[in-house]
Specification:
By secondary structure, the chain is of the alpha+beta class. It contains two helices and four strands, in the order ββββαα. The radius of gyration is 17 Å and the shape is elongated. The structure holds zinc ion (ZN).
């Protein structure tokens, strides 16, 4: 049978099409509202999460497969502080307190 359910959702890193097969995946914890979806309904663009597939080896250095560090950095820069739960007026790194 090919009606296996997987978890999908958009993480903070952007629009990577990655599905998760392990409900306790550490990467899945970064997803706000993961959805169960049939694996069969996903297109070829989707690939299995490195953690879930077992490809990710923490003993190896370097970024995980499919992760673009610069893209992730840009994503953080483009994120509105309020989305991170921070006050735009709070704790300014430049010391510009009101
Ligand atoms: Zn995963």
């Amino acid at each position: 049978m090919s009606d296996e359910l997987v978890q999908v959702g958009l993480s903070g890193s952007g629009d990577a099409k990655v599905y998760h097969t392990e409900s306790d995946c550490s990467a899945l914890k970064n997803i706000d509202n993961p959805q169960d979806i049939s694996l069969e309904s996903l297109t070829n663009e989707w690939r299995e999460c490195g953690y879930c597939s077992g490809d990710h080896d923490p003993t190896k250095s370097g970024p995980a497969k499919g992760v673009n560090p610069s893209k992730t950095k840009n994503g953080l820069l483009e994120t509105d502080p309020e989305e991170l739960g921070l006050s735009p007026l709070g704790e300014r790194p430049d010391g510009g307190t009101a």
